[in-house]
Amino acid sequence: MKRKLYLGLLVGLFWLLRGSEVFAQQTDHKKSGQGFEHVHALAMDAEGRILFLGTHTGLFRSEDGGKSWKKVTLSAKHSHLDIMAVAHDPRDPKMIYVGTHEAGIFKTPDGGTTWGQANTGLGGLDVHGLALDPNVPSKLHAAVREKGDGIYRATDGGGKWVRVDDGPGGEVKVLTSVNISTGMGGIFLYAGTAEGLQRSPDCF
Amino acid sequence: MGGLPTNRTVNGFAVVDPKIMYVAMRDGLFKSTDAGETWKRTGGELKNLAAVAINPKKPNKVYVATMDGKIYMSADAGMKWKKQQ
């Protein structure tokens, strides 16, 4: 009788612990799904493994298709960055670029472990769009707002930016290079803006 | 660009192929299969969308984020959607 009671207690304890573990996991997931204010960008790496979410409260990454998220720290100096754009290299899944509202462009060559700013030549630090050329991933375009507004181009992976165009009318929300030939030696740049979807040849 | 709501903010844009394009708007998700010439609403009742992304290895897998951070995934190129969190 005593042995049965002991066994029963053990089974009960097992289910109690198992239940609390499941509950803890669900709580974690629930927690991780909260706290996103004003989502600005969503992107998946070239291997289709990691989702990146750019929000008003920072950059987050998910390895389970968006069920749970971990915050990514870009800079010890900037603890609360507003992430406006995320662009990944189509050939190198570890190379990621991020555009921010207040500190310009950050770049990581190792999947997000180390980040550095890539702002040389930018007229301002409010970056609302970032596009990598799918044919030449070291060629990028960035949409800058407010101070120094316009479209900037870098041909060396973000090492040096040059202003090349005024950009589309209306606030840019997203910028993407699309592999459609213009017939003039370039491809098209698509911009999601406050005035709708607009496109322009990228041979400014 | 026929078929997209006019003079409305386009928050998100994603492309594969490159003829297949998705646009995320407050009004919902829109898809083009002819490089943006014509657009049709997809994604059922999805609204208030901030961004859209495509899995480059499996282009039928599409993700959208609402403005307040809810993530939905479609495994059939935008027909059926499942909330992720």
Descriptive overview:
- With 204 residues, chain A is α+β, with helices and mostly antiparallel strands.
- Chain A has two domains: 1-34; 38-201, Methylamine Dehydrogenase, Chain H (7 Propeller), CATH 2.130.10.
- Helices cover 16% and strands 40% of the residues of chain A.
- Chain A is built from one helix and 15 strands.
- Chain A has one helix at residues 2-33; strands spanning 39-44, 51-55, 58-62, 70-72, 83-88, 96-100, 105-108, 116-117, 126-132, 140-145, 150-154, 162-165, 172-181, 187-193, 196-201.
- In chain A, the strands form four sheets. Chain A has a four-stranded antiparallel β-sheet with strand order 1-2-3-4, with no helix packed on it. In chain A, strands 5-6-7-8 form a four-stranded antiparallel β-sheet, with no helix packed on it.
- The longest helix of chain A is centred in the N-terminal third of the chain and has 32 residues, at 2-33.
- The N and C termini of chain A lie far apart (87 Å).
- Mean pLDDT of chain A is 87; it is low at 11-33.
- Chain B has 85 residues and is mostly beta strands.
- Chain B has one domain: Thrombin, subunit H, CATH 2.40.10.
- Chain B is built from no helices and eight strands.
- In chain B, the strands form two sheets. Chain B has a four-stranded antiparallel β-sheet with strand order 1-2-3-4, with no helix packed on it. Chain B has a four-stranded antiparallel β-sheet with strand order 5-6-7-8, with no helix packed on it.
- In chain B, strand 3 and strand 4 (40-42) form a beta hairpin.
- The model of chain B has no long low-confidence stretch (mean pLDDT 94).
- The chains are: A alpha+beta (204), B mainly beta (85).
- At the A-B interface, helix 1, strand 1, strand 2, strand 13 and strand 14 of A face strand 1, strand 2, strand 5 and strand 6 of B.
